[in-house]
Amino acid sequence: MSKSYRRLAAPALSLVAVLLTLFHSDTALAADQLNSGDTAWILTATALVLFMTLPGLALFYGGLVQSRNVLSVLMHCVAIACLMSVLWLIVGYSLSFTDGAGANQLIGGFSRLFLDGVGTDTLAGAIPENVFFSFQMTFAVITPALMVGAYVERIKFSAVLILSGLWLIVVYAPVTHWVWGGGWLADMGVMDFAGGLVVHATAGISSLVIVRALGARHGFPNDSAPPHNPGMVAMGACMLWVGWFGFNGGSALAADGSAGMALTVTHIAAATASLVWMMIEWKKYGKPSLVGLVTGTIAGLATITPASGFVGPLGALIIGVAAGFVCFKMVQIVKQAWKLDDSLDVFAVHGVGGSLGTLLVAFLCAPEFGGLGLPEGKTMWDAFGVQAIGLAATIGWSAVATYILVKITAGLTSGIRVREDDELEGLDITAHGETAYRLD
Amino acid sequence: MSKSYRRLAAPALSLVAVLLTLFHSDTALAADQLNSGDTAWILTATALVLFMTLPGLALFYGGLVQSRNVLSVLMHCVAIACLMSVLWLIVGYSLSFTDGAGANQLIGGFSRLFLDGVGTDTLAGAIPENVFFSFQMTFAVITPALMVGAYVERIKFSAVLILSGLWLIVVYAPVTHWVWGGGWLADMGVMDFAGGLVVHATAGISSLVIVRALGARHGFPNDSAPPHNPGMVAMGACMLWVGWFGFNGGSALAADGSAGMALTVTHIAAATASLVWMMIEWKKYGKPSLVGLVTGTIAGLATITPASGFVGPLGALIIGVAAGFVCFKMVQIVKQAWKLDDSLDVFAVHGVGGSLGTLLVAFLCAPEFGGLGLPEGKTMWDAFGVQAIGLAATIGWSAVATYILVKITAGLTSGIRVREDDELEGLDITAHGETAYRLD
Amino acid sequence: MSKSYRRLAAPALSLVAVLLTLFHSDTALAADQLNSGDTAWILTATALVLFMTLPGLALFYGGLVQSRNVLSVLMHCVAIACLMSVLWLIVGYSLSFTDGAGANQLIGGFSRLFLDGVGTDTLAGAIPENVFFSFQMTFAVITPALMVGAYVERIKFSAVLILSGLWLIVVYAPVTHWVWGGGWLADMGVMDFAGGLVVHATAGISSLVIVRALGARHGFPNDSAPPHNPGMVAMGACMLWVGWFGFNGGSALAADGSAGMALTVTHIAAATASLVWMMIEWKKYGKPSLVGLVTGTIAGLATITPASGFVGPLGALIIGVAAGFVCFKMVQIVKQAWKLDDSLDVFAVHGVGGSLGTLLVAFLCAPEFGGLGLPEGKTMWDAFGVQAIGLAATIGWSAVATYILVKITAGLTSGIRVREDDELEGLDITAHGETAYRLD
Amino acid sequence: MKFVMAVIKPHKLDAVREALGATGVEGMTVSEVKGYGRQRGQTEIYRGAEYQVHFLPKVKVEIAVADDKVAQVVEAIQTSANTGKIGDGKVFVYNMDSAVRIRTGEQDNDAL
Amino acid sequence: MKFVMAVIKPHKLDAVREALGATGVEGMTVSEVKGYGRQRGQTEIYRGAEYQVHFLPKVKVEIAVADDKVAQVVEAIQTSANTGKIGDGKVFVYNMDSAVRIRTGEQDNDAL
Amino acid sequence: MKFVMAVIKPHKLDAVREALGATGVEGMTVSEVKGYGRQRGQTEIYRGAEYQVHFLPKVKVEIAVADDKVAQVVEAIQTSANTGKIGDGKVFVYNMDSAVRIRTGEQDNDAL
Ligand SMILES: Nc1ncnc2c1ncn2[C@@H]1O[C@H](COP(=O)(O)OP(=O)(O)O)[C@@H](O)[C@H]1O
Ligand SMILES: Nc1ncnc2c1ncn2[C@@H]1O[C@H](COP(=O)(O)OP(=O)(O)O)[C@@H](O)[C@H]1O
Ligand SMILES: Nc1ncnc2c1ncn2[C@@H]1O[C@H](COP(=O)(O)OP(=O)(O)O)[C@@H](O)[C@H]1O
User: Fold this and answer.
1) Ligand 2 — pocket residues by CB below 6 A?
2) C-alpha distance from E48 to closest chain F C-alpha (Å)
3) What residue numbers bound the domain in which E67 lies?
4) Is CB count within 10 Å lower at the N or C end of chain A?
5) Looking at residue D61, which CATH number applies to its domain?
6) pTM for this one?
7) CB proximity D64 to F under 8 Å
8) CATH of the domain at A182
């Protein structure tokens, strides 16, 4: 492991660092020796998180749109996965996780472009750095892919690629650096175990900005079409759930009780939020729906994400309940009060969920709520202050930067929206020349 | 790890204990130290077993019903997964795996309600207790979900939830305690590596009881509708197969040759039973079907489950052949002779398979059959006696308790069956307000 | 671990041996002690590779055919998986990986029939031999399954079973022994990390031979039907991608930086080739398609396979670009110039990809290209020579042997092709008596 | 010859087929359709948004019959498809000029 | 009574339904069909192979109407389904002998 | 004008389309249907239970033609869809009152 990286490691992986020192003292980290068990788990977690996007998220989103756009949604997700991976190798990882020297509070440096200097024996803590790189890459893949849900059924494919690519570098990499890469939020001790800020808040708020610029789908809100394939939605949600074990459990960067607790609380929050969403629908509409149930699942998962390494089972139950109620409400507010066609509710589920969890963790990590405890000398309100600052900064930067990136993209693609004809005929055939179902 | 738990551990995890002492002496268990490799594997196995239910089993069952009920089946599986998880946290785990003091032969105690007292550094053997908890939770999720196959296409959703919840506590938790949690069957040395009794026999026999109370679907048996989507069935079966590596392989609670052998025999039994089922169909009906092939897979998997840590490859071949023949026959007997609409053959495949494996392991674990051997001084017939007692007790308790629980559920839901109109129109729209396929 | 096996291990697992000594010296291999972390990863990798076939490949292929043949394709894949597993246990593993005594340059021996002599404590390096057996079994499953893509929509099911079974023993086992089992190519130091020769070249060239004997589908090439379900294709491709982490990453047989690098370069090559394929289509046809994008993915994955343990990220980018261009071109040549109905492009994607990677690795493994280096004293051109010999031998043997096996199979099944009527009506109903979609 | 076209509830198809069989009808052609009528469509709610689904699933049955059988056929359909609830469907009858059996070339009544 | 059958572009269905509603039509039956006409089918390219897809997705609307309403109905369809682009579809009108409402047994115009 | 409706075997659609093209027919509308006739349905066996599937997949082709072309069109279908095996299907012909091309408003024979 290069010296610059090691120097960075302690503050950089803030959450990890905290955890490691607090709960992880039983594994030999100090010596910077490879732990094959930890490595095995993070290799697995990498596969699990990739599985979340491919095909989990793709199916989850694909089932929610109309049948004439399902392939375009899958295409968005897969193409984003490919492009983000390559960009992550070229520059994203380096900007996120290396020392940015003078600018280090804000952004990393260029020492790891193309994974330069990383051999098979370069370590990042107790795991190979290439494993850490790949694990983080899967996060960089899913975050822009989450935003697909905001702009489906009407955006140009070229705009998807350009906007996502720019966004990775201008929004995702800096925020990652702030929180996990040794930047200013890490220095303040912000808690974000697996990406409430880095992943869900950035994607959620950016989605709203994109939707405002893009406009609503034809027929919104009165004549929108219902999901074309709720079973596909549920299948995707199940895969997201399973993959999330790697997302949150893997963020411990070790195969130990900390990973186990992250996995446990993740599961409990997901289960609880699902049940809450189901009960709300049952009470309010008379029938609990499958799409509602699994939307609750995703809300629970997004909300527990920042908190997953800090809270206990009781905290997970509370977060699950909060996620169910708050996200359910927000879905309606965005569509009905704000009249924004955030088509698959990226903001209401991911943005709001991730933000909620980011704030709640300040309290729920306290032992009083069964949490794993705050660093010595810190009160809940101290922690809450830091979390709020982190959230405000993340939202602010994501919104402003995305606004500008959308303008740039619109310039490059002569407008990010497809022609109305093409929208009506469907993007599958007009943008990709394909037909989804020939079942006869 | 709390003292009470540790005291319990040896007899409790009977199979594990046996195995560990017999075959596992090379890893440092005695010292109760975290093994990160073992932990990595059980974290992974937890994800794999969750994947079996979500979406594996859901798709397997969903494809077998009519298109107007497919969402209701997915809904059953997902909602059960959520509810069982929460109940497992609240009370199920504690009842199953803690010391029940005076009642310990029959049921565990309350010391682990809400995972009380389990921190990130609490161990269960060489893995964190929270990992053990989560791994076992995925078993508690899939077992009631298996029973979905018995009552699809005609049951009230509220009845599904209530019945499953009660069943977890009244049937699953006690039997788990008897066999794996230090209860009377563990004391007798019953062999059930991964749940032939605990999972498959309980679910299988309970299914029959539910079916008798619920009645057959409209049109059964002459006008039943064929599976609406055999490809979905096969996809689900494949996921079950892959996930079963975690189910059986994970039940070794270690990443070692015992896990490896469990995985190997699991795979061989599944492959063999599939081929047998295929050949029977080919011979009997002239055509081997995909649904038949993968039903054979599941039969093989269920049958090897109790035996997977005790037999060798030869035993797996024998079990595979037996599973194929016996379960095939039972499918016909249940439907044609008994005229019971156990709609997706839960009893014939899981109940019979799990029971068969439970009995066969008494012989096949002997070195003569390539097995890993019985404890010293025990003969095959000794072992068989214990297995038979275990099976009888499991069946007896499951049947009686389920009978009563169905009555209670019927009382609470004013009858567990939907109105005939709703059955004919389909549960997707009538119970959940959704339509599965809008492909045009 | 038995002595004969250990003697074999060094030359046998040539690539592994090389890697282990070069990069893996930090884990205690010498002592032949179980490493639970490595074991955890290979157990996981085994599940991942099985997942590639079941259901990954099955869905990938199933979506590409017409709806009246989709079940037959799933049936082929599942039944092959079952049959190969049993044959692997009986004889395939032994022929591939044991010492063949006098014939050892060409083929292994019989000492491991039915896994004879392998207990739970028998090791293969740092992992249990049963884990190594199972991991390799999943390779033996997917390789004949790859060939399904060549003969879909017109072959007899009985011919599929017989041909695949014979092929495993006559083609796959020997080539595996040559390359990974201590045979003559291993002795020459051929580089094939995860199966460019063993898996992709053998399957690719054999596919062409089968297609020539079988003939084209009715209507080829002018009236072929487009893929019936591109979304299913993409879902399968995503699963293949995720599973490939186990395929290539697991081939390190350890959870370390070598596995991490294999996973990393695998991912980068896949992403790059996908983007290249997409851009070619976009330029050439005006629209980038989902089926094209994910075909690029598979091309990238197949091409990096032999190289994955030897090259660095830069090499992966180069391989990705080469895979995209070359495989795209070959798809057209096979169909348009050679007029061969290799229906799902097994040769052009797997055969050509695997061969390309096998040759490129000779150069790209050099440190100049960011690779991990050649053994001391070897030049790129030395290496290239060996790779070329390995490729020629593999192609030659696969072609000749498959040619003969097809003849034998045709004799046994009175012709391997179904009646034209049955082809037109579709194999789902005529061969398996099933209907794929009843969605109303 | 007449051509009878009926729109019925999907789960009544089996009953109609059997009733027609009883009248001696040996052939029919069936398709999935969506119906709009007095029976209002359903409202589906996904994630809090209401979707008005105007069309309901129905099945269309088409039967070519000899003139003398029309009354009987219509009667059979009407009886067997009846549930007494709104949305039961309609039976329409047209005149048909000619019919051919593709396999044999038989014409008109012989072709049915 | 007449029977009107129209083949239209799928995304025009809502417009047609509303236009028909305005003329007082209370029922119709709709199905997915594939159309072949002057509007040539599309070419789809998969893995470099071109597939000529001859048929395009269309929607068929069937409406039984009383004689005096036919002109109005045809007019409504023609106006609402019109995009001015090739492939807009056709309206066909036939004579219908009789109609029955299955639920009530009402006949002919009463049954529509 | 006449309206020709044919029920054929699915894999004969391409042949019929080409044969019709040769007669100068420029448009048609096609849909998936399920047929019941002398060709008995198939039995599918799942897990040992037999399912009697009464209906077989067929394709319905609808063509509006000018009167003078009817014979030719029927002939073309009958020849091209013929396999000589049971289940080949039927051709039905009705009278049509009028036709309109939605795009242009052209009427009757001009609309076909
Ligand atoms: N005028 C019509 N033309 C064609 N089809 C009609 C017409 N009116 C009704 N239908 C069909 O009949 C079905 C049932 O009609 P509806 O008015 O809902 O109930 P009912 O059959 O009880 O009168 C509709 O869904 C539609 O498919
Ligand atoms: N002669 C015909 N008989 C039946 N349907 C027809 C006929 N001609 C056209 N159609 C239907 O009308 C649709 C539109 O016709 P087309 O010639 O493509 O364009 P336009 O409607 O602008 O004339 C076709 O796709 C087909 O479904
Ligand atoms: N009286 C009928 N009315 C409508 N469709 C019919 C009728 N008789 C047959 N058909 C259609 O024609 C198809 C073929 O008829 P069938 O009796 O099976 O064989 P064949 O065409 O050789 O006489 C049937 O599947 C059905 O779709």
Assistant:
1) E 7, 35-39, 56, 58, 86-90; F 27-29, 62-64, 101-103, 112
2) 22
3) 2-111
4) C
5) 3.30.70.120
6) 0.95
7) yes
8) 1.10.3430.10
